[in-house]
Specification:
Elements: E1 7-12, H1 16-31, E2 35-36, E3 45-50, H2 55-76, E4 81-85, H3 86-92, H4 94-100, E5 104-106, H5 114-122, E6 128-129, E7 150-154, E8 156-157, H6 168-171, E9 176-177, H7 180-192, E10 197-201, E11 209-210, E12 213-214, H8 215-222, E13 230-234, H9 243-251, E14 258-260, H10 268-273, H11 280-293, E15 298-305, H12 312-325, E16 329-334, H13 352-376, E17 381-389, E18 395-399, E19 405-409, E20 417-425, E21 429-434, H14 441-453
Parallel strand pairs: 1-2, 1-3, 3-4, 4-5, 5-6, 7-10, 10-13, 14-15, 15-16, 19-21
Antiparallel strand pairs: 8-9, 11-12, 17-18, 17-20, 18-19, 20-21
Helix pairs in contact: 8-9, 12-13
Bound molecules: S-adenosyl-L-homocysteine, iron/sulfur cluster and FE3-S4 cluster.
Length: 454
């Protein structure tokens, strides 16, 4: 038996959808009258919102549980209620209770029941819920309040693609779209709560549909919300990239010129074994169509190295695809065999050292392209959204339309949209100067250039 918690801390791992879910769980607990605390070790209730995508992510949960317990005990003399949420909760269920003696286990489609589960745990009862109800959780969540200038909005969940390496179809369930009205209402609430930019989220966000309407129709409707300045969406699957969505990048000014479109490999043989259902060529042709309507689009992707059976020749195909695309940024991972997925049982698993070496070469190529993209943006004028303070006095960090981090100094406030000229570029960010009207503008520009050079 533990006394009912008064303070809570939510810690999210994994993808942006988990960040969204973590925010919603915090809103639920706040509505129950609990107070949020930044220190995980001092909270009465700790929610670990977990990720199962690679083995390392999963193992981290168990080490975190041990560490939080130990520090809570030694520093505060407390024994917090520990709730495991997210994809590990879904995948491992009761096994987590056996292995780590946690109080609550709640899956990604059941967390609207968190208050009830926490109350049950406090009474010493079993508190595990990994149901995937047809009636989605969203209708049971409290209204949105106080959000950052750039906010997430989940519009689609789950995945029917069953790539042979991936756990998501098992942890998040089948593809489901939230309804039009509910999404538009939440977007309006986010804008009322301070959002200037909304990123629409889904495991396959471009598969979103409601009554024959697709993601581009939804984006067009959201673009009519006064006070909403920018729209993004992620993650997309190449096979769901409808012509309407491509054209939205030409027709809808509020839709930002950025596309995260994972390809995973440049080898057709490997793509087939991954069950990706697109080819190297169909992917490249798709990008041609996007660039035809929006030449400045910034492209991003995900890559896996060392999928079972990947030879040096297959990997060379991935490198040549990277050369052909020229990504603005990208994520790359060592293949991690996941329990229950077809690839985990495939012959010819690639040795870890071989994966390490390939990952290094791939990341060198991707870093080169990211630096080149940043360098090519020097001299561009654009509007940036200020998201947080930087390290230097008066410095802000904002995002360019192409999702670059932009450092800028000036009189402004977080949440402002300011016009800048990009004057310098580094590997991971660029520097801008605010475009001042009239006298002093040239001087500010020169000063910033000197700062950058120094
Ligand atoms: N729905 C998205 C992203 C899913 S997970 C998509 O289809 O692109 C994010 C990324 O994690 C994937 O794109 C993939 O690159 C990587 N990933 C997924 N399973 C993995 C595994 N078993 N090992 C290594 N990387 C993996
Ligand atoms: Fe996983 Fe493939 Fe679905 Fe993406 S599309 S979530 S990689 S199964
Ligand atoms: Fe991880 Fe689940 Fe997201 S496995 S990447 S938290 S969908």
């Amino acid at each position: 038996m533990k006394s009912p918690p008064k303070t809570f801390h939510v810690k999210s791992f994994g993808c942006q959808m988990n960040v969204y879910d973590g925010d919603r769980m915090a809103e639920i607990m706040a509505e129950q009258g609990l107070t949020a605390t930044d220190d995980a070790n001092a909270a009465d209730l700790v929610v670990l919102n977990t990720c199962h995508i690679r083995e390392k992510a999963t193992e981290k949960v168990y080490s975190d549980i041990g560490r939080i317990r130990k520090e809570a005990r030694s520093k505060h003399g407390t024994d917090p209620v520990i709730a495991v949420a997210g994809c590990v909760a879904q995948a491992e269920g009761a096994e987590i209770v056996r292995r780590a003696k946690v109080d609550v286990v709640v899956g990604p489609q059941a967390y609207h029941n968190l208050p009830d589960l926490v109350a049950r745990a406090a009474r010493g009862e079993s508190a595990l819920d990994t149901d995937m109800p047809v009636d989605l959780k969203f209708g049971h969540l409290p209204p949105r309040r106080r959000v950052s200038p750039s906010a997430f909005l989940t519009v689609q969940e789950g995945c029917d693609k069953f790539c042979t390496y991936c756990v998501v179809p098992y942890t998040r369930g089948a593809e489901v779209s939230r309804g039009w009205v509910q999404v538009v209402d939440e977007a309006k609430a986010l804008v009322d709560a301070g959002a200037k930019e909304i990123t629409l989220l889904g495991q396959n966000v471009n598969a979103w549909e409601d009554d024959g309407r697709g993601l581009h129709d939804l984006i067009a409707a959201l673009a009519d919300i006064a006070g909403l300045h920018r729209i993004r969406y992620t993650t997309s699957h190449p096979n769901d990239m409808a012509q309407g969505l491509i054209e939205a990048h030409r027709d809808i000014a509020k839709l930002m010129p950025f596309l995260h479109l994972p390809v995973q490999s440049g080898s057709d043989r490997i793509l087939k074994a991954m069950n990706r259902s697109h080819t190297r060529d169909s992917y490249l042709r798709l990008l041609d169509r996007v660039r035809a309507v929006r030449p400045d689009i910034a492209l991003s992707g995900d890559f896996i190295v060392g999928f079972p059976g990947e030879t040096e020749a297959d990997f060379a195909d991935t490198l040549s695809l990277v050369d052909a695309v020229g990504h603005a940024q990208a994520f790359s991972f060592k293949y991690s065999p996941r329990p229950g997925t077809p690839a985990a049982g495939m012959a010819d698993q690639v040795a870890s050292e071989v994966m390490d070496e390939r990952l290094q070469r791939l990341q060198a190529a991707l870093n080169r392209d990211q630096a080149a993209f940043n360098a090519a943006s020097v001299g561009r004028r654009c509007t940036i959204l200020l998201e947080r303070m930087g390290k230097l006095p008066g410095q802000f960090i904002g995002k360019s339309p192409w999702l670059q981090s932009v450092h800028v100094v000036g009189k402004a406030a977080i949440g402002d949209l300011v016009d800048v000229t990009i004057v310098a570029a580094g590997p991971n960010s660029v520097t801008g100067v605010m475009i001042e009207q009239g006298e002093g503008a040239d001087e500010a520009f020169q000063r910033a250039k000197l700062d950058v050079a120094a």
